[in-house]
Amino acid sequence: MTYIVVQFDYSNRKGMYERLLKVFEESVRVNDPENDVVVKMVKPPQVRTKHCFSSNTHKLAIWVDEMKKLPEGHEICFIDCDMMVVKSPNDVFENDFDIAYTKRPKPAGHRLPVNGGVVFCRNTEKSRNFMMKWKEINDKMYNDRKFHERYRKKYAGMNQSAFGYLMEHPQEWDAKLIPVECNTYNVCNESWHRVGHDENIRIVHIKSQLRKMVLSGTCSKRGCEEAVRMWLELYNSINGEQITMKIDPVRPLNRRGKKRPIPVGVKKKKNVHKIDMEVKPSEGICEPDRCKDQRRVYVP
Prior knowledge:
By secondary structure, the protein is an alpha/beta fold. The protein has 9 helices and 12 strands.
């Protein structure tokens, strides 16, 4: 199998994507050494539209071009650079398909049904036709805002919106398309807490808040400690550094990783005192359950 990844050289991002790519490559070297990695380093498109739409459109075109260079029947994993391979995903090709996409679990309550950061593909005529059709719809959406917005509300992004259109119009393609679990092959927000505890996990998506945590070396979301620790170990092995994970001591976070709201009428940083005992409602203006959980009291 060959991983195909595109990285845009954003000079104003302080090397963020370069670090993410290096850790991805190291994760493949350590955890999946039998497979190859093809990295395409390109400059971001110089356009005035939202950068992620133009970049995703360009990325999909590169995927299609690289696919044509590989032999017939070759196994491919189109993948974003902000990934961490925990275990080889080769077992996905035990299934019969031309294209396999990662579907997000319904119980998680996430509004987006798919994530386009990982797409598995067998290099066949049907899969090539599907990829070209995907690019065609993507290009149409890029040039037609109204068309794009109809699907963006449901699928988000540009590539995912075009992919969602194809899922809803199967008469326009003839490839065999199957879903595989995000919880295994593209672990996102709702399943980060399972990293390090679930042996079925193959690939972890270092996106949104998890990306901020690994780049800062500070875990600020309950349950993400193992994911942050594993990423930092790979980063340290590349750079010969000894960055250790820190836990954010400022204010405990809720399950969604957001800071708990400060009660109305209390200043944000001033007059906040930590305590080491359970607080009674009369000692502060916050709710007793919140005080007990955060182990602090707010004094007006």
